[in-house]
């Protein structure tokens, strides 16, 4: 029926008068729209650049400077800044800038690894719950309710203290194992709404396997909320690592992390107050960049957002 | 309504039991036996045997779990949650001492947060993209990005150590006994400020977007079209609906407030639940650790329950 109606209209469209009125704006794919919306978000673009610079610095500088971030030298104690040590030396004769970059590397490694665990666990559990439905969905979601009721930060403190204080990977697993619930809820919600959608039913009717439907058709739909959750998760993880150090459960010196540098600087706050600013500002820069980037991505990835008219 | 409340309460009970089971396993998953910290010291083996008997640690794990599940609801019995490994007092007695300072800290901060962040959110929404909106947004984001302990430490250094306006730690001046309200409030200032700054950052952003959403709605345009003054539209028509999501925020912010309180209490040695719990983790005082997880979870569940019930009260569109 519909086809019969479209037929004459399509034929009519060929006539010269109608061609002039055809919308000539090029068709844009979803990702082109995303890029355009993202670039309009100035703060998010700046945040992305800051984050790329920080990640690059955290990878390259410790690699170039070798052991300078942990090597002590009595002759260099509290020396002022120079070309090879832009922030001078601390009370143990360690190159502060080299140590700060090593700390940034550790903190970012912790945050990114924790977020990988959060996203993978959340995706798998959310996908199973949302796709299987029924009693399995019910059981998994009640489990999520229980985990969400537990005081998560305290659970992290407990896991780190009971298993191995000071080990970076214990911190990563503690953050990952307590943080996946929100990601699981997001993925499940997306699965519930897409599972009954027309195109998924069409794929089922064509005989696509469950695996193909999940991986090719539904998961891409859940990508947007996951990316946003992951970006914000990086900001949270960096703060959690620092707070653990403050409470005495974090990564231990001589290894450097933003948290233990910040905590150690507190002991010297009266003699060299400047030392508290370096790790503090780097930490705030990471958190701000990640959260602005998350906000920008949320707006950019949402298909309902319009492109602002210029 | 009564049926709805009853149903929500009944739904919360299995969650509480689930929390008790999960908390039990997390604490017992710790490597080694809970009595390991007594071994190798001056504690005689006979005493350790007694401790193992007292806590039924010689029983199989399912039996221990069953006895925990069946005794923890009997809160009228002082020994229902066991005894602290550190001071030997009943856990419920220790908790009873530490809950009021934490509730005082959290409650004061919650009230102040609402008083400060709701007007800020309204201002940001009504004058969207104005200079004051931008300043509020930037300050809120920086407040959100600052770790609680660092903010607390800086406030303590500046206003406690340098300016000496406020005390550095504790809830009362040393050597005092009994309740001295002005002294307590004086000690409360810095911890509450720390906790409030962090919470205001999140709440004002939330309030702003909620208000923006309401201001875009048709009935607000109608109110303006009728010729009502801007103030009347904003405060009489829009505000009421914009406040509804804030009710949920109250329940949702309990977990963040709890962990924030634990950190703040550690910075200022505030004698509350969080300080006790972090200390208990350090000394491996398992009964106290288990109790804190339970109390924290029960506070979160209660917060959600109250928020749900309030939501049904304030929003006539909700069917229950």
CATH homologous superfamily name of the domain at 100-301 in chain A?
MetI-like
Specify the overall morphology of chain B.
globular
CATH topology of chain B: MetI-like fold
- Approximately how much helix is present in the residues of chain B? over 70%
Which architecture of chain B would the CATH scheme give at its second level?
Orthogonal Bundle
Q: Could you tell me the mean pLDDT of chain B? A: 83
Helix content of chain A: over 70%
Please state the CA-atom Rg of chain A, rounded to the nearest Å: 26 Å
- Kindly state the number of beta strands of chain A: 0
Number of helices of chain A: 13
- The helix/strand series of chain A, from N terminus to C terminus, equals HHHHHHHHHHHHH
Terminus-to-terminus distance of chain A: 41 Å
Biggest beta-sheet profile of chain A: none
**Fourth-tier CATH superfamily name of chain B:** MetI-like
| End-to-end gap of chain B | 7 Å
Low-confidence segments of chain B, given as residue ranges, are none
Please state the structural category of chain A.
mainly alpha
Counted beta strands of chain B = 0
Alpha-carbon Rg of chain B, integer: 24 Å
Distinct helical segment count of chain B: 12
Class computed from helices, strands and strand pairing of chain B: mainly alpha
Question: Could you characterize the architecture of this molecule?
Answer:
The complex is a heterodimer of chains A (310) and B (320). Chain A is built from 13 helices and no strands. Chain A has 310 residues and is mainly α. Chain A has a domain at 100-301: MetI-like fold (Orthogonal Bundle). By secondary structure, chain B is mainly α. Helices cover 73% and strands 0% of the residues of chain B. Chain B contains 12 helices and no strands. Chain B is globular and about 85 Å long. Chain B starts with a helix and ends in a 6-residue tail after the last helix. In chain B, 35% of the residues are buried. The chains are: A mainly alpha (310), B mainly alpha (320).
């Amino acid at each position: 029926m519909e086809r019969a109606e479209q037929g004459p209209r399509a034929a009519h469209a060929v006539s010269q008068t109608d061609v002039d009125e055809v919308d000539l704006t090029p068709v844009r794919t979803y990702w082109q729209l995303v890029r355009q919306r993202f670039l309009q978000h100035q703060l998010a673009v700046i945040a992305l650049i800051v984050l790329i610079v920080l990640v690059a610095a955290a990878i390259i500088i410790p690699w170039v400077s070798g052991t300078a971030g942990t090597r002590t030298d009595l002759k260099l104690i509290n020396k002022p800044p120079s070309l090879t040590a832009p922030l001078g030396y601390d009370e143990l004769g360690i190159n502060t800038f080299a140590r700060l970059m090593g700390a940034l590397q550790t903190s970012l490694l912790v945050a990114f690894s924790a977020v990988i665990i959060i996203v993978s666990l959340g995706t798998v559990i959310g996908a199973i719950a949302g796709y299987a439905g029924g009693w399995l969905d019910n059981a998994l979601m009640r489990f999520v309710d229980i985990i969400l009721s537990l005081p998560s930060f305290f659970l992290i403190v407990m896991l780190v203290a009971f298993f191995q204080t000071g080990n970076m990977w214990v911190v990563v697993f503690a953050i990952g194992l307590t943080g996946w619930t929100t990601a699981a809820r997001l993925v499940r919600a997306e699965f519930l709404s897409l599972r009954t959608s027309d195109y998924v039913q069409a794929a089922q009717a064509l005989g696509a396997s469950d695996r193909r439907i999940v991986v090719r058709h539904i998961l891409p739909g859940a990508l947007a909320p996951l990316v946003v959750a992951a970006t914000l998760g990086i900001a949270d993880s960096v703060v959690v690592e620092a707070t653990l150090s403050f409470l005495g459960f974090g990564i231990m010196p001589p290894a450097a992390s933003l948290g233990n540098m910040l905590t150690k600087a507190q002991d010297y706050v009266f003699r060299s107050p400047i030392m508290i600013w370096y790790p503090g500002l780097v930490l705030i820069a990471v958190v701000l960049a990640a959260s602005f980037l998350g906000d920008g991505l949320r707006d950019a990835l949402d298909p309902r957002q319009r492109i602002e008219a210029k | 309504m009564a049926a709805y409340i009853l149903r929500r309460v009944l739904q919360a009970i299995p969650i509480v039991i689930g929390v008790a089971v999960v908390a039990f396993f997390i604490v017992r998953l710790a490597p080694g036996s809970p009595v390991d910290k007594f071994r190798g010291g001056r504690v005689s083996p006979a005493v350790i045997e007694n401790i193992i008997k007292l806590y039924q640690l010689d029983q199989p794990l399912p039996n221990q779990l069953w006895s925990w599940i069946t005794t923890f609801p009997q809160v009228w019995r002082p020994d229902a949650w066991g005894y602290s490994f550190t001071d030997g007092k009943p856990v419920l007695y220790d908790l009873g001492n530490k809950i009021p300072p934490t509730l005082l800290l959290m409650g004061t901060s919650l009230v102040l947060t609402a008083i400060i962040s709701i007007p800020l959110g309204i201002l940001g929404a009504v004058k969207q993209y104005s200079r004051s909106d931008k300043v509020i947004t930037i300050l809120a984001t920086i407040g959100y990005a600052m770790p609680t302990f660092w903010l607390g430490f800086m406030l303590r250094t500046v206003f406690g150590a340098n300016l000496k306006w406020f005390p550095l730690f504790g809830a009362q001046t040393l050597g005092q006994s009994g309740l001295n309200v002005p002294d307590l409030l004086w000690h409360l200032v810095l911890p509450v400020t720390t906790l409030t700054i962090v919470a205001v950052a999140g709440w004002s952003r939330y309030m702003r977007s909620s208000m923006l959403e309401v201001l875009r709605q048709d009935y607000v345009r109608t109110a303006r079209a009728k010729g009502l003054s801007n103030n009347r539209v904003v405060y009489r028509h829009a505000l009421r609906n914009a406040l509804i999501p804030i009710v949920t925020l109250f329940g949702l912010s309990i977990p963040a407030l709890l962990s924030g309180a634990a950190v703040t209490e550690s910075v200022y040695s505030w004698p509350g639940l969080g300080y006790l719990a972090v200390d208990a983790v350090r000394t491996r005082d398992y009964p106290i650790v288990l109790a804190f997880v339970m109390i924290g979870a029960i506070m979160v569940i209660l917060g959600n329950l109250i928020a749900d019930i309030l939501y049904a009260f304030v929003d006539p569109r909700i069917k229950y």
